[in-house]
Design a protein that fits this description.
heterodimer, A: about 190 residues, mainly alpha, about 80% helix, globular, B: about 350 residues, alpha+beta, Phage tail protein beta-alpha-beta fold, 3 domains, 14-stranded mixed beta sheet, 8 helices
Chain lengths: ~190, ~350
């Protein structure tokens, strides 16, 4: 396993490098979930991402750094997805309404931003101890503490402890903070411009 | 959001860290700045951080199997780098892939001495309808066999003597051997190549040969005719038929799409219904009956992969505005029957 992994590396112009396998592991889920934005089909998304990796490896292009490899992947996955939709009559029927949106740059860039953010959140959630993770996922599904305690067969107080620990990972206060800043800034700016 | 993917990647990562309390001071600054640029940015951040989105994205990512995908990727790289290994093919779970390898001894005549026996040992690889397979030949060329196909070669097949006989459809990825051409004999035609990728379709019941060249160079000739010879260019599809005085018809196709069957996929792009039916019949090993000739006027585009035949014919029904009636035959031996009629 290790020797095989040693064999294949992505090398960058500045002389640094990364194992192809590590790159695959840290980006596969993001890329898939990005392709799913376009195709709404898990199998097809996986196909596209596989094809993207194969053609990337075969082309032997050089890149200046890790971010530019990722940018290359996002761009080619997007193109491959749009191509598929264009050439598939059955799909075209499903996607007729959303096609214009999907071809837009905004959709593309927002997709990238979301998937990169969600990829990190996904990893952080998976780092949690098993129970905390379960509690967090259920409470994201809007389960009440009581429902969680029934579901996982633990005491309500234990639910609360797990929950508060898990929530330290996710910045849940955020919603309020943003709202406050929004209103503050607006009045602040108004005063200045006036 | 700036107008290039680089910026989106970086910002996305900063936001991911920000929302998990793992950001650096600089990253926090960048997110704050971005957030205060536009109210849409705040809305986007809120949307990412909403319970509904968080769980939705988590579950979507969680539903993909990274490990399996990595194995699949490595397998493909292995195959590409032509390491001599028979690679297990990932096809739809519903489709069985069986390789039947039969060695048949032909003692053609008594003239052959004992040392020649080995060279008369025929190896045949066949796939039945509904099955597909991949073979690695002794010279490390790789051949993908589509449904209902037989590929045979003599026991003395070697790096110097490379000849195979085909009945059906196969995609060849021939390893380059200087001065030793690779020959494919099918329906009396001979395809001569040095080292390249191409698709040959020559089912004996259609009496013609269709060759699609993906890369490199191949020459198409006929056993009984010295004057018949055509050298193909990449991206070309050549159809030669026995019936029309061996006239050859050249068109351009997307070679990747044409040979998509070898990836376990059937891709149709504006394909005439006649082609579609012929391919699906072999692909799923079903009987298809057409009640109105008008059905043949339809064209179909679509990709078939893991879908069941029920699902595909339902889609064809919708896309082509025809009725597809499926008659299940519960007698084990019998194939399912699909009756397609005008709506």
């Amino acid at each position: 396993m290790i020797t095989e992994k040693r064999g294949k590396k992505i090398k960058f112009n500045d002389g640094s490098e990364i194992y192809l396998e590590d790159f695959f592991n840290s980006n596969y889920l993001r890329f898939n979930s990005f392709a799913y934005n376009y195709l709404s089909d898990k199998n097809e998304s996986e196909d596209v991402v596989q094809d993207a990796f194969i053609s990337f490896w075969e082309q032997k292009k050089t890149f200046s750094n890790l971010i530019s490899v990722k940018a290359y992947f996002y761009t080619s996955i997007r193109n491959m997805c749009l191509n598929r939709i264009k050439h598939d009559l059955v799909k075209q029927k499903y996607f007729q309404e959303s096609q214009q949106k999907m071809e837009s740059t905004e959709f593309f860039l927002e997709g990238i931003l979301r998937k990169e953010a969600n990829g990190i959140i996904f990893n952080e959630i998976n780092k949690l101890p098993q129970m905390e993770k379960k509690v967090l996922l259920l409470s994201l599904k809007e389960y009440s503490n009581e429902q969680i305690s029934n579901e996982l067969d633990i005491k309500i107080n234990t639910v609360k402890t797990h929950k508060s620990r898990a929530y330290q990972v996710l910045r849940k206060r955020l919603g309020n903070i943003i709202f406050m800043m929004l209103t503050l800034n607006k009045s602040f700016f108004n005063r200045i411009t006036n | 959001m700036k107008n290039n993917p680089h910026e989106s990647i970086l910002l996305g990562q900063f936001i991911g860290k920000y929302l998990t309390n793992t950001e650096s001071a600089k990253e926090k600054e960048a997110v704050d700045k971005w957030m205060n640029e536009r109210s849409e940015h705040k809305e986007l951040l809120n949307s990412i951080n909403s319970n509904k989105k968080l769980i939705q994205e988590y579950e979507l990512m969680d539903s993909f199997n990274e490990k399996m995908a990595l194995e699949r990727f490595k397998e493909k790289l292995l195959l590409k780098s032509k390491i001599k290994a028979l690679v297990r093919w990932r096809v739809a779970a519903s489709i069985f892939v069986l390789v039947g390898v039969i060695g048949i001894l032909y003692f053609l005549s008594n003239n052959y001495s004992k040392t020649n026996v080995k060279s008369n040992l025929y190896t045949s690889v066949f796939t039945e309808n509904g099955q597909r397979s991949v073979v690695v030949l002794p010279d490390s060329s790789i051949v993908w066999l589509n449904s209902g196909t037989t590929l045979s070669y003599l026991g003395d097949f070697s790096n110097q003597n490379r000849k195979v006989v085909l009945n059906g459809q196969a995609f060849f990825q021939v390893s380059h051997k200087r001065d030793h051409p690779f020959l494919v004999e099918a329906n009396g035609f001979v395809v001569t190549v040095m080292g390249t990728k191409f698709d040959v379709s020559a089912y004996s019941e259609v009496n013609e040969i269709a060759v699609v060249l993906e890369s490199g160079k191949v020459k198409l000739t006929h056993q009984d005719s010295d004057s018949f010879s055509y050298t193909m260019k990449p991206g070309e599809k050549a159809i030669a038929s026995l019936a029309d005085n061996r006239e050859i018809e050249i068109s351009r196709v997307d070679a990747g799409v044409y040979s998509s069957w070898k990836e376990g996929k059937l891709i149709f792009r504006n394909s005439p219904m006649k082609d579609v039916i012929e391919k699906l019949r072999k692909w799923y090993n079903v009987n298809i009956e057409i009640t109105d000739p008008e059905v043949y006027n339809s064209i179909f585009s679509g990709t078939v992969k893991n879908e069941s035949y029920e699902e595909i014919f339902r889609l064809i029904g919708i896309a082509c505005k025809v009725d597809c009636e499926i008659v299940h035959n519960y007698n084990k031996e019998a194939k399912p029957q699909i009756i397609i009629s005008k709506r």
